[in-house]
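As noted in the main text, all predictions were made from sequence alone. Below is one such record, for Peptidase C15, pyroglutamyl peptidase I-like protein.
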Amino acid sequence: MAPVASAVTRVLVTGFGPFQGVPNNPSWAIASLLPTTLPNNISLTIHPAPLPVAYHPVISTVPALIADVHPDIALHIGVVEGRTYFAVEQTSRRNVYGYSWNADIDGEVFTDTEGDAVWGDQPTVLSTELDLEAVVDEWQNRTEGIVWPEGESEGIQGKAGGDDDDEVRLSDNVGTYLCAFIYYTSMVEMGKERGQRDTAFMHVPLLLGEEEVQFGVEVTVELIQSLVSSWRAERAGGT
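Prediction:
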């Protein structure tokens, strides 16, 4: 079992705003409802507004946010339509084709030239230095008692009463749009700020309505507890 640290662990959390086809982004709905503290000496800093689904606002906001908050762990939340589960993502890439041709909500792209200027000699692929396998093992245990609501969204309806083992997962498919972009950006900045890429990205289903969003909040709280538990165990050398 991971030791309980006496010091407060600081976790930064962000969510995204609306984009094409998703007028009410559940990633921000979840982030905005999280408490500022959790048991076991965990302090949450929630970015006070949804991040625009736009490259240049993200690349200007995230580095400044990390430098100001000095988080131990950063957690960014996004949504995937059509998924029936929650997942934390392992890797992200710089200068993927999506950034340069898939326009954001401002109608802008992020070119390879811009990426080279911002990220310099950073690797093409970055992976979080959090032990996501250990995190997901604990996350699955923590969410065993959380009942999927009989909700409005197709994913939730299809999942209610289904296989509990698939509710929360480890994934390596962050995509090629703003989810990948913010994850790569955050890993770079956390590496500079903390010397460790202690960043996580969670994809949530397209949750609809108050009950489904509250369900997402519960799942997210258990993810944060799992992230902190694993992070503390690694810093203590494990037990």
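The helical segments are 26-33, 55-69, 97-101, 112-119, 132-142, 154-159, 178-194, 209-235. The beta strands are 9-15, 37-38, 42-46, 73-79, 86-89, 91-93, 125-127, 168-171, 199-204. These features were considered when defining construct boundaries for the mutagenesis experiments described in Section 2.9.
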